[in-house]
Amino acid sequence: MTTANPLLADQDLPDFAVIKAAHVVPAVEEAIAAHRAAVESITASGKDDFDAVILAAERADFLLSRVWSPVGHLASVADTPELREAHAAAQALMTAYLMEAGQNRAHHDAVARLAARSDFAALPPAARRAVDLALRGFHLAGVALEGEARQRFLDIGVALSDLSTKFGNAVLDATEAWSEHVTDEALLDGVSDGDKAILAAYAQEKGLSGWLITLRQPSVLAILYHAKDRALRERVYRAYNTRASDQAEDRSHDNSERIDAIMALRHEAAQILGFADSATHSLETKMAADADEALAFLADLARRARPVGEGELAEARAFAAEHLGLDDVRPWDLSYVAEAMRRTLHGVDQEALKAYFPLPRVLAGTQALIERLFDVRLVVREGVSTWHPDVLFYDVLDAGGAVVAGVYLDLFARAGKRGGAWMDVCRSRFRDADRLHLPIAYLTTNFAPPAGDRPSLATHNDVVTLFHEFGHVLHHLLTEVDLPSIGGISGVEWDAVELPSQFMENFAWDRDTLIGLSGHVESGEPLPEAMFDRLLAARQFQAGLAILRQIEFATFDLLLHRDYDPALGARVDSVLEQVREAVAVIQPPAWNRFAHGFSHIFAGGYAAGYYSYLWAELLSADAFEIFAHGDIAGGGATAFRREILAAGASRPAAENFRAFAGRGPEVDALLRMRGLAA
């Protein structure tokens, strides 16, 4: 008797609890075969109408994604040796096939014939947009290449996919490889009882007594922000900032050669397609016209922010000398000093704040905010098959009570789970004949887990992160576009995709919202008005240093890709040094290997695109200021949902913004929000 493969099941949600590593490769092989057959059917038919060409391709893509999405997600949140091996094998198959499919000239020609029809202009704008983006996709996949160049481009695509996966795995393995076992509680002086309970739980995981400091996010933050032992802070800082590098204690995960190979192959691929460099290649699908425009944007921000950052650093050094006995502030001191300054100068104690944000209350308040803004309700559905007992699933209900979408929440840091926070697509919205497939998203964070019978306590930064990721989620879930290629986040210019997420962040600084979702873990009392006032007053505390750090990362990313020279190699250290001399006011130690853990650009989608965070922040700050001032007829949230969230990539992002705001974006709101306005 043959057991059905759960990855191939035609059901609305994946049956995560029964998916095994052994299911992965057979399912992907079958899904690829089905997709190839569907494309062959499209090209063999000779038809050139929208349904026969685009809708049929959307259907094939949807079914392929339905198999691959759970596999990719599990590799990020439930890593095991068996799954890693299966994922790597399946990813090689997928990458090779998708590269091949992107160069399918018969399929390209079918789309081109549709675009050339005399009645093409009569199609709805969203349909024409889907056709235009499909043709662009073929171009960027190398459909026009011939002979050796064609094959080489395919080979590069497969190699880059493998290298990116291995880069991310190395960071994950390096994160888990380092730890420091603590048996003397005095070493943890300054660390809160809640954080010590988390470190104790990490020790128990390993069968140890006492406490275990790891490189998981809750542990790193607890030590760098609160531990009084300077040597301990230095050890954790060094371990974290040399992960997966030649400077780590364990060099078996060193990403140096992978970075060199990734950069060389990206440059070669770009040149095969006729681009000068991989930055130009990347910017082809973004709002910014070219790398020079993006760099000029960053340089202007740096010019405004650097004097502010220099003043903030001087203040921190003076405070550290006077109040903490630190005459020489080093990088591993900065967060500790900043927290002391918040407490002393602004009356903001992050540990005291955490007590007001038990995660269950925060989630309930987030649900209330989303309902208030967008008239949809998030309702927990019990009994959904998940990959871990902590995972929650919410149905999204419209005003009439109908389910219109869903989202998985996986919130806590643990072994086998990639660090950071992200949103991803589980299922896209797709109207196929009389069947409507509902959009489903994943929302993943690495918050501190509950300790014993005490709930997880969120920092204010955690609240900001949750709202940020929910912005992405809502972009996906509230789409009204029925074609997966241009619905939700799909097809949206990368430097605009952060607009909804950063728009939502602002509500973490809204009095009614933040106080409304608070409730002290012991008394249930809401956050006192005075504490909120102090928090809000400190919003721009060290804002100059914070934005300079983002500018540094973004400028490094663009220059690394724009100025790559095959004769010289990646030159990571020299490019970073060049950028830091121009931008940074804090110089890290020579052994710092930040780039070796920079998964956004080496294992994610942000290559020559990390500037997108600040570019989109310009859009979001402007949009939120318009919203907050009530300058949108008919309700700002309603307009934001209609023109930004619902529209997806059915129009260019610039048109979406103009439809919402009635004008193009302006930088002034960003400067005011960041404390950089003249």
From TrEMBL:
It catalyses: Hydrolysis of oligopeptides, with broad specificity. Gly or Ala commonly occur as P1 or P1' residues, but more distant residues are also important, as is shown by the fact that Z-Gly-Pro-Gly-|-Gly-Pro-Ala is cleaved, but not Z-(Gly)(5). Its EC number is 3.4.24.70. Keywords: Hydrolase, Metal-binding, Metalloprotease, Protease, Zinc. Residues 224-674 form the Peptidase M3A/M3B catalytic domain. Binds 1 zinc ion. Pfam families: Peptidase_M3, TOP_N. One of its GO terms (biological process) is proteolysis. Its cofactor is Zn(2+). SUPFAM superfamilies: Metalloproteases ('zincins'), catalytic domain. This is oligopeptidase A. It comes from Sphingobium chlorophenolicum L-1. The lineage of its organism: Bacteria, Pseudomonadati, Pseudomonadota, Alphaproteobacteria, Sphingomonadales.
